[in-house]
Write a structure and sequence with these properties.
mainly alpha, two-stranded antiparallel sheet, 2 helices, 74% helix
Length: 163
Amino acid sequence: MRFPGVIGACLLAAVVWQVQAWRYTAQLEQQSSAHAQVLSQQYLAGLHQLQAEQDKRLALEQQLNVSDQQHARELSDVQRHQAALRDRLATADVRLSVLLDATEPTRGCSMPATATSGGVVHAAARARLDPAHAQRIIDITDAGDQGLIALRACQAYARAVAR
């Protein structure tokens, strides 16, 4: 008659085993649910951070685009002004001249010390530059202006990116 006691013990062990399995499964489901919630929150946080970075990048791109357009406009204006000045030099509408040092003797220079009828009465003595030299001076100032505009554009870009 020992069998009924052993069967009862086996049945009791099986029931206890099944109850523990249900409890363990419930714990695993709770952990899985909590882990899924943590992952979801991390995903949403990463998504919000990514959106914020994309918004920053878009704002910076727009700012740089506006800055680039402004510098291109400045460069275009300077180039147009330099071209007009070159045209005026070529047509003799404008002449470049330099001031002569009034304290230095003229050393064989036949420049009049007094103003002519077309000039200002009290003007200092001036010498006209050769048109070819004047053109080279205009070209040098044009290159310098373009360099300064490019430098300002680079500085603006560096400041915008550094923010």
